[in-house]
Amino acid sequence: MIAQDLVEQSIPSPRPDASERAASTWHSQMPDDKEMLRAAVELTRDISAARPAIYWPDMLGSAALGYTALAGAILLDNPIAAFACGLLASLALYRALLFIHELTHVHKDALPGFRFAWNLLVGIPLLIPSFMYEGVHTQHHARTRYGTIEDPEYMPLALMKPWSLPVFALTAILLPPALLVRSAVLVPLGVVIPPLRRLVWERASALSINPQYRRRPPEGQFARMVFWQELGCSIWAIAELAASFAYGWRPLAIALCVVSFTAFLNQVRTLVAHLWENDGEAMTVTAQYLDSVNVPPPAVLSPLWAPVGLRYHALHHLLPSMPYHSLSECHRRLSAHLGEDTTYARASYKGLTPLLKRLAGSTMRAR
Predict the structure, then answer these.
(1) Which of 63, 91, 160, 357 could disulfide-link 164, Cβ–Cβ 3.0 to 4.6 Å?
(2) Membrane-spanning residues where (predicted)?
C-alpha cells in the first residue's frame, strides 16, 4: 500500500537521537480501552468472512481497467488522451496492487486460487510478487513489534527532520526501475553469486520502510513459493528489456512512468497511514490504534488514495483479519455503539491534506 518499497531503504537515519525527539511518547504505554477492544470483536463477528463474490470481480476488474488504460497511454498519439489514460491506469493498477495487503491477512482457504491469480495477473507483471509482503507485514501487526526497531513498516517520521518527508515520498518514483534491475539482473546473478543472493534477499526483497530491517531466509513451503515467483518475475523482466531493445523503449518508459506514479500515490498514503509519533517503545493495542488513522466518510476522495479498505487503517489494526469489504460496516457499528467522545472516535480524521499538515507540523516542532 504501500506503503513501502525497496528504494525507501535509502532514507537517512530513521531513528532520531534523544535531542531530536518530540514529547510524543505519551501514548506508548496508554492502558488499553477494553470496552473498545471488546466491542470491536463482538459487534463484527457476523461480517468477518471474506466474500469471493467481491474479491474476484474487484481485483480482476481493476487489473483489466489498469492494463487497458495503460495500452491507451502507450498507443494513443493525442498527448492529452494518452495522459488521461496513464492517470487512469495508475489509479486502477494501484487498486489492483493493494490486494497484496489482503493476501497477507485473509485465511489461505478463504479464497481458493486468488493468490495464484493475483500474482499471475498483477504481482509478476508489475514485479511486486506477494512474497515481498507476506511474512513481512504480519510483523508490523505483532503486538510487541509495532513502532519498534523490529517493525519493518515503521519510521518515526513525525520526529524526523522536515526534509525527510519529501525525500520519503519522492524516492518512490525510483521503485519501478529498481524492481526491473532487481528481477532482470540481480536475482539471476544471485544464482551464481551466493553473497549477492543473500544481500538481495535481506535488503531488497521486502516492502519495508525501515532501513535497518533485514529479512530472514525463507523456509519450507514459503521458500518454494518464493522460488517460483522470483522465476516468473525474472523471466518477465528480461523479456521486457529484450522487447525494448528489439522494438523500442517508448512502451517500457511509459509503463515505468505509470507505475512510478502508482508508487508515489502509495508512498503519500503511507505518510498518513499512521501518526508516526512513537520513538521505539513497545505500545499497547490502544496506543497502536491511536497512532493509526481512519479517514471515513464524508471524506470523498479517500477511496482513491487509500483503496481496498485502507481508509480504515486504524480500524484494521484493531481487526487485522477483517476483509476490506466489511470495514465500512464495522466502522458504522462501532461508531454508533461507542459514540463520538470515545477512544474509537479519536483515530478518525477529515482527509489527506489535514493529515499531511499535521505530520509536517510535527517535523517542524521536532527540529
Answers:
(1) 160
(2) 53-74, 80-100, 112-133, 167-193
Q: Is the pTM of this model over 0.85?
A: yes
DSSP conformation letters of 282-306: ---HHHHHHTB-B--TT-SSHHHHS
pLDDT of 154 > 50? The answer is yes
Cell of 21: 525527539
Q: Which residues pair with 242 in a beta bridge?
A: none
User: Can you read off the three cell numbers belonging to residue 7?
Assistant: 528504494
The 10 Å CB-count burial string (b at 16+, else e) for 243-264 is: eeeeeeeebbebbbbbbbbbbb
Report pLDDT digits (tens) over 6-44.
Answer: 444 434 344 444 333 334 444 667 889 999 999 999 999
Cβ–Cβ under 8 Å, residues 188 and 320: no
d(CA 266, CA 263): 5
Task: Note if the bond before 14 is cis, omega within 30 degrees.
Answer: no
State CA 189 to chain mean position distance: 28
What does each C-alpha distance from 37 to 45, 286, 321 come to in angstroms? 13, 8, 14
Rounded CA gap, 246 and 278, in Å?
Answer: 51
* Rounded distance between C-alpha atoms, residue 289 and residue 43, angstroms: 18
212, pLDDT greater than 50: yes
For the chain, the domains span 6-14+56-366
- Stated as kind and residue range, the H or E segment containing 230 is helix 220-247
Cα-Cα-Cα-Cα dihedral sign, residues 355, 358, 364, 367 = negative
CB 62 within 8 A of CB 314: no
CA pair distance 273, 295, nearest whole angstrom: 9
Return the exposure string of 327-342: e unless at least 16 CB atoms fall within 10 Å of the residue's CB, then b.
Answer: bbebbebbbeebeeee
Contact 294, 313 (CB under 8 A): yes
